[in-house]
Amino acid sequence: MFGPRxxxxxxxxxxxxxxxxxxxxxxxxxxxxYKEAKPMISNAGKAISIIRELGNTTTNRVMTxxxxxxxxxxxxxxxxxxxxxxxxxxxx
Length: 92
Hints:
Elements: H1 13-86
């Protein structure tokens, strides 16, 4: 298997067994990694599409709600500014 005669000879039973042993060792390391990563890879497309949808809908809702809710607040602030120009109001 090793040494100067290893390259000169053809296939031998020990070389085949050594190669199979190495191959099985690599496969035994790769299979658990594949089993762990497979669900993440298969769901990655779905997750990206869900994130895009959530980003689009929440942005539109927030902008709409903010515009609607800001009008009464601005009016209230303007009234307070006008009232404060007359002088301080201690009791309302």
